[in-house]
Amino acid sequence: MFVGHYSVAFAVRTGKIPLWVLFVAVQFLDYIWATLVLLGIEKLRVIKGFTAGSMLDSYFHPYSHSLIAAVLWSGAAGLCYKLLCRWRGYGYTKSAALIVGVAVFSHWILDLIAHPRDLPIYDNTAKVGFGLWNYRDPEFALEIALLALGIALYLARNAIPAIRKGAVIAFGIALVVIQIGDTYVPRTALSDKATALGVWIFYTLFVLIALFVERIGAGPQTNTPGS
Ligand SMILES: [Zn+2]
Known about the structure:
It is a single chain. The chain is mainly alpha-helical and 227 residues long. The longest helix is centred in the last third of the chain and has 23 residues, at 162-184. Helices cover 61% and strands 7% of the residues. It contains nine helices and four strands; from the N terminus they run αααββαααββααα. The site of zinc ion has 5 residues, from helix 3 and helix 6.
């Protein structure tokens, strides 16, 4: 699963948690994974045609992608968000830590649908995965359907100016184009480290765009004296 993960970020974005934070949350497990691959702790093989929809043979990723690890990272991320809000004095609402935690955990559920049987329940054993990546078109269709649904919910549930609506839709279209490239455009397999670095770069680019998009049409920031 790739851009489909962002459907959750769009769908749960109401209230005070910024979209960019949710963009980090839904890919948090992959950030951990890419970091551990770069450090040589988790193992990845990039094999052309490994599955119809992905070249990733992620054969050892217990610290980022086991079910137990996903639960622990989700709890830790929710707690960190809560502490960060308190520390920085951001408006923290009661359910925010839970929403961030659920967003982080959603990654594992969506990976479970797409991945071949490479997601361990604990440690590096009892591996599960429904393997939708073996079916290129249905997997692609699911990614796009999820993303469209998430964006539709975001647009329906947030009162935002027309100019930002346009920007969000344009961002959605850009993500669809990137998914088309990822799924259908043939390319040579990169090394494991280059792939992990690419994950860091692309995901962070999307986070920055999410940050930028929510500033469009926000008006000048007013700092009232004494506040
Ligand atoms: Zn993942």
